[in-house]
Each structure stands twice: as C-alpha cells, then as structure tokens.
Amino acid sequence: MTAQNNFTQGNSSSSSPPLVSVRDVTMIFRTQDTETIALQGANLDIQPGEFISLIGPSGCGKTTLLRILADLQTPTSGDISIKGMTPTKARESRAYGYVFQAPALMDWRSVLKNVMLPLEVMNFPKENRLEKAREMLRLVGLEKFEKNFPFQLSGGMQQRVSIARALAFDPPLLFMDEPFGALDEITRENLNMELLRLWRETGKTVIFVTHSISEAVFLSTRVVVMTARPGKIEGIVNVDLPQPRSVETREHPRFFEIATEIRELLRKGHA
Amino acid sequence: MTAQNNFTQGNSSSSSPPLVSVRDVTMIFRTQDTETIALQGANLDIQPGEFISLIGPSGCGKTTLLRILADLQTPTSGDISIKGMTPTKARESRAYGYVFQAPALMDWRSVLKNVMLPLEVMNFPKENRLEKAREMLRLVGLEKFEKNFPFQLSGGMQQRVSIARALAFDPPLLFMDEPFGALDEITRENLNMELLRLWRETGKTVIFVTHSISEAVFLSTRVVVMTARPGKIEGIVNVDLPQPRSVETREHPRFFEIATEIRELLRKGHA
Amino acid sequence: MASYSVMKENRPQASRAWISWTLVLLAHLVLFFISYTLNQQQGVSQKLLLQIVTVLSLFVGLTAVGLVAQNRRDFIPAALLFTVSVLFVEAMLRVNEVPAGLIPTPSRVVVALYNAREVLMLDVFYTFVLEALIGFVAGIVIGVLASMAVARYKFLELGILPYASIFSSIPIVALAPVMVKAIGLEWPSKAAVVAVTVIFPIIVNVVRGLQSASPLHLDLMRSYGASPMRVFFDVRVPTAMPYFFNALKISTTLSLISAIVAEFFGTTGNGLGFRIQIEAGRFNFDIVWAAIVVASVIGIVFFSLIGALERKVTGWHASYRS
Amino acid sequence: KDLVQVKLQLKWFPQAQFAGFFVAKEKGYFEAEGLDVQFLPIGDQSPIQTVVTGTADFGTTWITDLLTARQNGLPVVHIAQIFQKSGFTLVALKSSGINKPADFKGKRIGVWPSGNEYPAVALLKKYKMTSSLDSSVARPDVQAVTYPFDPSIVFPDKVDLVSAMTYNEVDQIVGLGYSMDKIRVFKASDYGINLLEDLMFSSERVLNNPNFKNSGMSGKEIAAKLVKASLKGWDYAVKNQKEAVSIVLPLCGNTCKGSGTRADARAHQTWQMAEVAKLYNAGPTLKGNAGLLDAKTYASNVKLLRDLGILKSAPPASAVDYSIWEMATGKKAK
Amino acid sequence: MNTLLQRTLPLLVVAVIIVLLYYPLMIWANSPVAQRSLETGADIGCKTVSECVYMLRNPVIPAPAQLGEGIKSLTIPPLAPTSAPYNALVTLGEAIVGLALASAVGLLLAILLVLSGSFERAVLPWLVASQTVPIIAIAPMLAVILGQYGVQGWFPKALIAAYIAFFPIVIGVSKGLKSPDPLQLDLMKTYNASRVQVFTLLRFPASVPFLFTALKVASTAAMVGSIVAEISTISFSGIGKMLAENSRASDTIALWVIMFYGALLGIVLVALINLLERMVAPWRATRS
Ligand SMILES: Nc1ncnc2c1ncn2[C@@H]1O[C@H](COP(=O)(O)OP(=O)(O)OP(=O)(O)O)[C@@H](O)[C@H]1O
Ligand SMILES: Nc1ncnc2c1ncn2[C@@H]1O[C@H](COP(=O)(O)OP(=O)(O)OP(=O)(O)O)[C@@H](O)[C@H]1O
Ligand SMILES: Cc1ncc(C[n+]2csc(CCO)c2C)c(N)n1
Ligand SMILES: [Mg+2]
Ligand SMILES: [Mg+2]
Which helix (H) or strand (E) holds C83? Predict the structure, then answer.
C-alpha cells in the first residue's frame, strides 16, 4: 500500500489546505430488510489542482462518494469540507460540475439547449451562451448534432453531450462519473487529451470515476482504489509520471508499474 | 483488410448456410432538417455458433445494426435474413435475446422480478422461473440484491441485471450492446469468461458490441470494424486464436497482431 | 422511397379496399332508402323486418368503415362513422315511430340548426366565449397557481389537496344557485361555476406532474445550485406538461358542459343552456339537439386545438414516439 | 283480491298541491277501485316524458305542457281537470311602486323556464309589452330572466317581479320577511289569463290498451277508476283540510316547510291546502262537475296559446278524452 | 403515530384557517342581502345589518350557527330516510358503482385508443362530443330505454355517473398507456410478448401515475354525476333528491348542509383512491 499523504504532482503544492476533505464518511442504505454499507469510514484529502481517479469494483461506492461530495446525498456519518465550506455551501456557490453516470439529458431540449442549460441556470450573459455551448459541442465532436433531440443520438453521443454540458460553465471542480465509459478508444483518447489540456490550462480539480486502469493512470495525479461491500478505500496510489502527459506517457516504464500496483490493489479488494 | 468470406473458427463450419445474413442494408434517419446515414450498404454473413463483435466509433451505427437485426427498426433499404426467416419472423419465434445499451429495467419490479420478466412473458413453467432467475443473478454476482429495486443499484449493477435478464431464457442468438461497458476490469473479465463458457457449452451465436479492442479479440471469432458517418463496415477481422480461450489467450502473439490490425482499421475509419 | 414501399404493401389489399367501400356505400344507401320512404306521421308496417334490416345495415356499415379505417390516417373514417351512425339513427327513429317531442330525427335537427342559426350563434358567444372560455382560463390560472404552491410545500399538499377535492365534489346543481345569489344572473356567475369545476382536475394533474420530475434531473439542477424557480421552470414544468395537457383536455368539455348546465340555474336569456332548457320545456327537441350539436362541434374543435397544442409543446414525450 | 299496479307521475314533490291524491290513497279510495297507485316524484324530466315512455301510466301537469307536447307528436291525452283556475301570479314589493301591469315596463321579471313561462308571457302580451324571451325583439320592454323556481335566489335583489304560485311561492316570499301587506300579488287569472293548471293525463298507448297490465280491464276503465277515486280524494281533502294536511305532512319531510329555516311545515301546508282548495273549487266544480274540463275555458286557453304563437294550430280533438270523466262520474260532459 | 399527526396537522391547521376566514367571508357576502332586506322592509327579526347577516333566510353563505342547526336537523337520526347521512350513503353507493363501470369502460376504450390509431381517429371525436351533451337531454333517452323495462332506482344513476366519469379515465389512461420508455417497449418486442402481456407487464404499470390522477378526477365526476342523475330522473333517495327538493322548497341552509355531505363524500372517494394507489403501486411510495 502506498503512503497516503505523501505525494508529488504537477500543479498543486502539498502545503496548501486541502480543497476537498473527507473524514470518516460512512453511508448506509437501508432497503427492504437489509442494510447496504455503501461507504465505510472513508478518508481522503484532495489538494487544489489535483486529478483524482476513483477506481473499484461495481457497486463499491464510487458514485455514492461523488454524490456525497456534491451534496446530493447526506452521509450517515462523517464530515466533508470543500474549499473550507460544507458541501451544501459549495454546491450553492456553484463550485463544481458533475457528469453523471447516466447522461440525464432532458428529453424536451435539443442537444444545444441541453448544453446551454447550466449557462441559463447560472445566468451567463445571453450572448455568450450559444457560443460557449457550441464550443463545447465542438470539443466532444457533436457540433453537427446541435439541433437533434436526445433520443436521436447514440449512447456514446448522449454521454458526450452530458460531458459538454458539465464543462460548459467552466467549474473549478469537476466530478466525473465514468464519463468516457460508452466511448470507443479513439474518441476516448481524444477526450482524455482534451480533458487534460483543460485541466492543465485552467487549473481545475477533477475527481474522476473510471474502470480503466490505464485511463486512471494516464490522467491522474493520484488514484483512489476502492473495495466493495462494505465500500472502503483500499489504497491510494500516487501517479508520479511527468506532467504534461502525452502519448509517450503510456510508454513510460513507471506507467506499467503503477498500473500493476493498482491492479494488485483491485485484485486484493475483489477477493 | 481481411477477406470477408474466408474464416476459420472453432464451432461452426463455413459450408453451412449463414444464420444471419445482411445484404446491402442502409438506414437513413431524417431529423429536423438533415439526414443521418446511420448505416450504408452493410453486408455481413454470420454462421451459426459464431461470436461476432462490432466495434467502431461512437455513433457509427452499431446499435442501429443490432436493432435492425432484432426487428426493432426497419431499414431504409436492404435485406436481412435470420435462420432463413425475416427478422420479424425470427423475433416472433423468440430466436434471440437482447442486452440493450441502457439497462432498461422496470422501476416497479424488484431485481429478481426484472430477471423473471422474459420467463413470464414466454410462459416458462412457474416452478422454474425463480430458480432460473436466481441462477442468472448468481452468474452476474447479484444474488444478494434480488429484493432491491433498480433505483437502489449502482450503474454497473443495473447493467448486470439486464445481462442476467437476457440470458435467463437461454436464447440461441444473443445481441449484446456494450453489455460490460460500465463494469470494472475484474468483474468484466469474470463475465467474459462466463459468457464464453455459456457460448461454448450451448453453441449460441453472439453478436456483441464493444469499445474494447482486447475484449473483442478475446471473445470473438470475427470482429466487424465500422466507421462513422456514413456508418459503414470498414473491414472484418478473422480472429484465428485457438479455442477455448483462456487467460493465456491474451498472451498469445497473434492476440497483439489482431488487436493491432483492428486498431489500424479503426484509425483508418476515424480519420 | 418510403411511399413506394407503402404502396407495395397495400397492393394485395386493393381488392379488399374496394369491397369495403362498396359495403360502406351499400349501408348508406339502404339506411337512406329506409329513412326516405318512411314518413313519421303514417304508420309503419312490417316494423320487425325493417328493424332487422336497419340494424343489419348498421352492422355492415360499421364493419366496412372499420376496414376502410385500417388503411387511412385522415378524417375519412371518422366522417364515415358519423354518416353511417346518423343515417342509422334517422332510420331507426322513423321505423320505430319515435315522436319528435321525445327524440327528433337527425334530419329535423339539421333543419332546426339552419333555421335557428342566428340565435344559436349568439348563444355560442355567451356560453362558449363569455362563460366557458373565461371560466376555463380563470380556472387554469387559479388551479396552476394553487398546484405550484401545493407542489412546493409539503404542508400545503397535506393541508389543501383534500380540500381541493371538496370543490370538485360540489355538484354544479348546488354551486350554481349559490353563485347566482352571490354574483348575479349574468354571465360572470357561470364563468365562476366553470372556473370552480375546472380547478380540481387541473390541481390533481398538475401536482402529480410537478412531482413526477426525474430524480436525476433534480440532482443535476441541484448540482448547479439552481434556484427553486429554475428547477421549477426547467425541470418540473416540462415534466408536468403531459399531465397538464390531460387536465386541459378534460377541462375543454368540462368547461363547456358546466357553462351549459350553469345556465339552467338562472340566466338573463342567452346561451346554449338557456336555449336547451327553454326549448325542452316546449318539447322542441329539434332545437334542443341542434344546440347540443353546436356544443359538441365546439367541444371537438376546442379539444382538438388543445390536442394540437399538446403535440406542439410536448412533442418530445415518449407517447409521441411510435 | 289482486290490485292493479298504477303509476301516477306527480308534477312536483309531495305537498298539499296533490292532497287529493294522497287522501285517496290514505283513505283507501284507490284500493276500493282495485288500484294500487304508486306516486312517482318529479325529476328534471317532465311528467309528459315519463308517461309517454311508459315509465308512468298517468300523470299530472299543466295544460300548456300537454298541448305543446301534443303539437310535437307526443300522444298524450287529457282525462280530467283538477284545478279549474290558474294559481299563477307575479309578485312585486309594494315599495317598488309597481301597482299595475302597465308598470312592468322596463322592469326585470323572474320567470320559470321549461314551459312555465307562458302565463307571464301572455300577461305581458295582453298589455302590449315585449320581453327578452322573444328572440326576435331587439329592445324588449321587459327583461325576463329564468331561474329554478326558488324565489329567494332572485327576489328581491335581482328582479322586480317574481313568479309565484298562490299556494306555494307566495308563502315562501312571506317567509323571506315580506308579509302580505308588503307585497303586491298580480294573479294572472285576475287579468283574464286563466291558463289551466293541474290536470290528469295519460298516453294513447295506455288508454287504447284493451287489457291494461293483464288486469282484464281496458286502459280507459283503469283511467276512469283512477279519476273517480282521485276526485273523491280531492272532495274529501278540500272539505277536511286539516286532516288532509296531516296526511300530507309525513310524505314531504323537510320540504314541507317551504320557506327557510324558521318556517313551520304545518303552517305552510295549511296555507297551501287552503289556496289549492280555491283553485279546485272554481268553474265546473262549483256546478258539481269536479274534474271536468270546461270547454269554454279550454277553447280560450287554446286561443291564447295560438295568439302567443306557442301553438301553431288547434290541437286535435283526441287531445282531450271526455269519456274517461264521463265513465268516472256517470255524467255527461256536455 | 407520529406520521399520522404529521399528516393530519396540516389538514387541521387549514381547517382552522378556513373556519377563521369563514366569518368575515360570510359577513361580507351576506351584508348586501341583509342591507337590501332591511331597505325593502323585510321582517326578519333583526334591526341592523350586522345583526341580520346571521339570520337571513336566504343567506349567500349561512352563519355557522345556522349551519350547525341545519346539520343537526338533517343528521339526526342518521339513518332515517330523510336524513342526509343516509341519503349520502345511497349516493356514495351509486357513485362507486358508477366509478367501477366508468373504470371498466374507460380502461377498455383507452386500450382500444392505444392499440389502434384508426379507432382513435374514428371514435375520439365522439367521446368528446358525448361530454358536451347535458344530462337533461340524455335522461329522457335513458327513460325510453330503461323505463320500458321497469328499470328504476339506483342503476340509472350509476349509469349516468359512469357516463360522466369515464371521460377523464379515457384521456388519462390512454396517455399513461402511451408513456412507457420506448426502450422498454422494444424489450417486450424482443420477447415477442403478446399485446396482452405488453399491457399487463409494461403499459399498465407505467401508466399508474396517470391512472390514479385520472381516477381521482373521475371519482368526483362520478359523485357529481350520480347527484345530477338523482335530480334529473325519478328518485326516491339520494343527496341529489334532497338537493332538488330543498332547492324547490327554498331551504338555502339545507342546501348547504347537503353540499357539505356531498363534499364529505368527495373526500372519502378521493381518500379511497389514494389508499388504493398505495396498495397497488408501492414502488412510488418507497422512493422518498
Ligand atoms: N438509493 C439507494 N438505496 C439503496 N442502496 C443503494 C442506493 N444507492 C446505492 N446503493 C447501494 O450502494 C452501493 C454502492 O453504490 P454506488 O452507486 O456508489 O456504486 P458504484 O461504485 O458507483 O458502482 P458502479 O461502478 O457499478 O456504478 C451499491 O451496493 C448499491 O446497491
Ligand atoms: N431515432 C433516431 N433518429 C435520428 N437519428 C438517429 C436515431 N437513432 C440513431 N440515430 C443516429 O444514427 C447514428 C448511429 O447511431 P447508433 O446508435 O447506431 O450508434 P452506435 O454505433 O451505437 O454508437 P454508440 O457507440 O455511441 O452507442 C448516430 O449518428 C445517431 O445520431
Ligand atoms: C308547489 C308548486 N307548485 C307549482 C309550482 C309551479 N310549478 C308547478 S309544476 C312546475 C314546474 C315543473 O316542471 C312549476 C314551476 C311551483 N313552483 N311550486
Ligand atoms: Mg456508479
Ligand atoms: Mg450504441
């Protein structure tokens, strides 16, 4: 297991106070006659500008953790602080954007209007909205589909719209729940590069759920490995690959070492 | 590009008539003011017992092709035959099971009841239904969640329920649209092995959509590579790896060659 | 391309279409002939035979219209259904010598419709425009505002919704006299009755609609720190639309009938309800039914307009994807 | 012995207006004739409709209804005339300064719809006034408004004159706090508008039935028995009003009160009985011919209705069947 | 227990507010009538407007004391044929039978509308038209048809109640039946599910929210329908019969009391539907 609070990374200093801090967070769901411990005693500190990936078996609590951070769910116990605020305050100050696991597009809005939704909600100046939304659609390669309605898109295209929507308002903190899960490798790699560029250029902090070890390693400054039932943080792996990442990063000898380390952790958790 | 009608594989002979035959199939969607050519002049023959993967960029028509085969959509032009029948007849004879890209579970049914749905529809003997459904839930690792309702499951768990549902009635032909997209690597590998075992033991024919080249190579007898807009079959790659596949298959030198071939084709189509 | 394939599909059915059209025509002719030859004043001989022929013609006609309807997406089947039924009623009434003071024949109604057209148009102005329409709009506004409050505060849902059902349980026959006493004999008292009767369907539907928003959409808006107003307009209102339109559709006919019935309880002498009441007392049921026909036509047009609006506004809804 | 079931549709809810029938039943006069009479209360349907459709065998109604129905092809037949005089009035407050029909001009009059508006219309016409009930008149002299019978809905707030029967609504208006000295009652009959009211009728189907409900008797015989017993009841009721009221009271429950919460049911029905007796004890009754339709009055009623344009032509002779009354009383009608 | 309080508290609070608002509303509504009565010299046992508003014989809104008196006199004894509770039960029975009939017919029509586009095009306009025909016009026809066979009493009322109530059910349910997720319809198609199965397993469960809103609207419509039917056709009991009689007897306060009972019935019916919904569709309740 890797030391938890000893990490180095490109664009944040370890002396600043954590941007996100998770303390002993536990989440228990009561259903019909049983309880599901979706998260047990989770602890995690995230510095500003980090790129954190969450990886772990299906149903281990990744989504639950993101939802708790995003103030969409209240943990059974434990404390959360984001930028020194409660999750509610953070949410209300529009500190983050969230890409849900399902696209969650609105049937009644065209692709363009779906992407413009956060801009409308947050009262961006009218002139900019269209421009910004179109820019994001270009980023995800859907500029030609702006007039379509969601049901007229393929699964991967819907997911990309939802990514464009989350990026549109340029939030400093990004929660992304398997955003690239339904995409082919090439589109995925392109979007990986775009995301990294955005991250680098804007200094965003990203918390990213993925099932792809190589994606996690390629993108992240640290990878949080989780185990299932009860959902726990099994370990946190520091990704000390040079920044900025590029195509060569995947060839780097450390890449494989880290990937292997994560795989081991995962296997350990799975057993 | 690989010769289309020259292939060898484990459990089907090339002299038998094709199980699935796709002839010059074109699908054009008219939307607001434009047309989307989702599929253009697709030709494909599938022998009984084959395991075919469809791979291609997001929005290239994979889902559309499956839906046409499954008689959920009528192509703009072209002919389809399945077991010598029209798709409608094939559907009516319950020739296939379909795992949709989205889980499409019914909110009002528990996990167990969702899996039992096809058994109810097809009038399986009452005694067997429960048993069969539980067996399938065990296969996908969700036996403990049978009483839960869909909204109480994680994304990956929902997807697994939908896989269990499709397998429950043991259809001879399986259409699977990115069934493992939302699963972690280990669960995915486990399910890959289970699927292969089922395929081998029951002689099913599988048509499988995936974005993972290695998954496609590992599972398939042939891989159909598609390109986007207009959606076309770019090439069909024969996977002449020995059967039965096992963990070692991934280490086989041919594995990488084939994977590379597919990657090339994909890149070519993407450009 | 598409039209070609449709044509191809239909070709084997061409002969069947021909047969059904012939049958439709035959039914019309027989029914018309029976009606034409029977004069209501003279006695009818061979009543039983004629009854059987009439019912048989209706049966043949309906079946044939059903066959015609299978291949058409236009108004023709509805029109044929209408003509067959009207001819059947005409023939049946004549065969059975039903007096006009009880049920008038359709032909008498048509004549009355023509003769009384000016009076009826003025009645329509009162009943539909002043009473039904104004009451409808007022009811919607009040109903929607109340629904918003109810959907917003759980307290109100528990506290007000049950009372809302009280409103709709007050029969018009009890409400109308109170309204006349309170507001007067002129049209506003009827508009008020209409508003009250329309409110409940609106509230029940709109509250349910507002509460049906997808949890995921609500989460999304929450993640934006969206104000309740934004959540309301961006998520809840669109999801409530199909429900809202259901309520509107029901309210179209409800408002019309409420206005008509409310006129039975005091009026200054205009309106379809007044006309129906006063002419029913004189046994002039041809004018009564002429007024009802006018009301029905308005009802259908009103309903269709709302239906068209629904399709326009909620075209995205699953119910419009075939 | 087996009684013949007969259904009699009353024109209104049970009250002293129908005292004679109730007395006939209570005293066993119907039974004595071999009849078991069931009274049907009124709904929105007119008695004409229930009788024509066979829901009831006999009914009571006003002559205007009977004749307009007949004109529209409904085969209804007059068999006996109970009230020989009209009880229809228009009531105004004395303080309103309406002292004579000519003063109606420019006023609002409340009329009952459904064919009950004719006496008011006839009165207006007699004084050469037009009303808003004629759709052909652009600027009517009188605005007529319709409302459902209860005078308190419109009077005195919304109309200047309100329709009232001597035996019912007049007392209801008194109940509203306007004693007889505060109101002016314009009786239609005082102004020559004597459109006859409560009468007994049946349908041609019943009367032409040779074997009424398998009783072995013809419809006409049954009708005659019914009329005979009814008239006997009426004679008794009119002579023993107190007893008649006692017979009526249990039949009408809450609605006997007639006028607001503080009204007394017995008082109201006593008033009603007295007023109804006045309508019964008029015309032919005074000559010992109770139940007879006076030919002259009938002719003048028909003329009035034709003048008003309500009847397009004289009703056929078959609209009135004097033979029933003759059978019932053993007298000659002419 | 706690939740029971949580549920009833708002109801009670609103009830108190209504009672508090009732007084001023009553005084405001009755004042002009009282004024006019006094001006026209009516003798109603009071001298001033503020005094008279409580004792009008034709109040726009009755004073609470009058209402209480009226409730008492029409309620005791509760099961006498002239008492409101007894007649309310009669009407409730008719309304429930009517609602059941309406549900059966409405459901059937909704299914046909969903199954066949041509049926919808041919029949929907007629259904709409049927709702614009006042009962006064239907009642004689019903009399022709039923009276000839001696059918009287509660059945024609239930029929008319059904006639009014089926429409909201048709509209609501047909929309509901059309609203399942298209993907789920596809799923059923891949199973080659029969039409019946598509309905029982998918369309009906998916239409539940629409169904129950429709039922609520229909239940009050059925109530009104049976009351109107009682007024329009020959009736020996029922709220409608009481309404008709008392309105013709000018008993304004009795009318209010009867309306009160009618409203009570409405609440009972809607509550029954709510209960039914909780029993039939528990999955809606479980999700917070
Ligand atoms: N609303 C709920 N009610 C009950 N149990 C829930 C609920 N939401 C989540 N769970 C349970 O909590 C556990 C964690 O779920 P979560 O969605 O966080 O998993 P995940 O890590 O995101 O998985 P995946 O990769 O499959 O999306 C699961 O076992 C799930 O069944
Ligand atoms: N109902 C529809 N109306 C209009 N266009 C459609 C419709 N369904 C699919 N399309 C278009 O057809 C194309 C192919 O879609 P399809 O769903 O087959 O893609 P796919 O290969 O499955 O992609 P993915 O991997 O993202 O799921 C897309 O461009 C999509 O926008
Ligand atoms: C007690 C009483 N008797 C007669 C009338 C007048 N009237 C007799 S029958 C009828 C209408 C029936 O359709 C009306 C208005 C009345 N109002 N109250
Ligand atoms: Mg998840
Ligand atoms: Mg797809």
Answer: helix C76-95
Q: Is the sign of the CA dihedral D47, D49, D55, D57 positive or negative?
A: positive
> Closest by alpha carbon to D181, among D196, D191, D170?
D170
Residues E38 and E51: their CA atoms lie apart, in Å, by: 11
Instruction: Identify residues of B whose CB sits under 8 angstroms from chain C CBs.
Output: 76-77, 151
DSSP codes of every residue in E149-213: TT--THHHHHHHHHHHHHHHHHHHHHHHHT-S-HHHHHHHHHTT--HHHIIIIIIHHHHHHHHHH
All residues at 6 or more sequence positions from B54 whose CB lies less than 8 Å from its CB, including other chains: B62, B65, B66, B207, B208, B209, B210, B223, B224, B226
**Integer Cα distance of B41 and A253 in angstroms:** 45
Ligand lying closest to the C-alpha of residue A211: 1
Q: What is the pLDDT of residue A7?
A: 38
Query: To the nearest whole percent, how much of chain C has pLDDT over 90?
Result: 30
Q: Is some CB atom of chain E closer than 8 A to the CB atom of C216? A: no
Tell me how close the Cα of C157 comes to any Cα of chain A, in angstroms. Answer: 24
- Lowest model confidence (mean pLDDT) among B178-182, D211-215, E4-8: E4-8
Spatial separation of the C-alpha atoms in residues C4 and A15, rounded to whole Å: 73
The distance from CA D186 to its chain's CA centroid, rounded to whole angstroms, is 18
Domains recognised in chain C with CATH numbers = 2-98 (no CATH), 115-320 (1.10.3720.10)
Helix axes C285-313 and E135-142, enclosed angle (nearest 10): 120
Please name each of the domains of chain E with its CATH number.
2-61 (no CATH), 84-287 (1.10.3720.10)
- B92 at E interface, C-beta within 8 A: yes
Pocket test for ligand 1, best of B111, B145, B154, B188 (most atoms within 8 A of CB): B154
Strands across the sheet with B20-30, in order? B35-46, B20-30, B77-82
Whether the complex's predicted ipTM is more than 0.90 is answered with no
Structural domains in chain B?
A: 14-95+172-271 (3.40.50.300), 101-170 (no CATH)
For residue D156, cis peptide bond before it (omega within 30 degrees of 0): yes
Record the tokens describing residue C86, joined without a space: 């009207």
From E135, which residue of chain D is nearest by alpha-carbon distance?
D44
Tokens of D7: 């259904």
- SS3 string, D61-97, reads ECHHHHHHHHHCCCCEEEEEECCCCCCEEEEEEHHHC
Q: Is the Cβ–Cβ distance between B233 and B223 less than 8 Å?
A: no
CA-CA distance, E210 to C192, in Å (whole number)?
Answer: 28
Q: Do D and B have ≥3 inter-chain CB pairs under 8 A?
A: no
- Chain D neighbors of C284, CB-CB under 8 A: 72
For the segment A115-132, what is each residue's pLDDT rounded down to a tens digit? 999 999 988 998 889 999
Distance CA D307, CA D313 (A): 10
Whether chain E has a CB inside 8 Å of the CB on B151: the answer is: yes
Q: 3-state DSSP helix/strand/coil percent for chain E, to nearest 5? A: 80, 0, 20
pLDDT of residue B6: 36
> What is the model's pLDDT at position C3?
34
The dihedral through the CA atoms of A249, A255, A256, A259 has a sign that is negative
Sheet holding D58-61: strands in order across?
Answer: D35-40, D4-9, D58-61, D199-203, D76-81
The atom number, within ligand 2, closest to the CA of B229 reads 29
pTM: 0.87
| The pair of three-digit structure tokens given for residue E8, joined into one six-digit string | 């009833």
Q: What is the mean pLDDT of residues E230-258?
A: 82
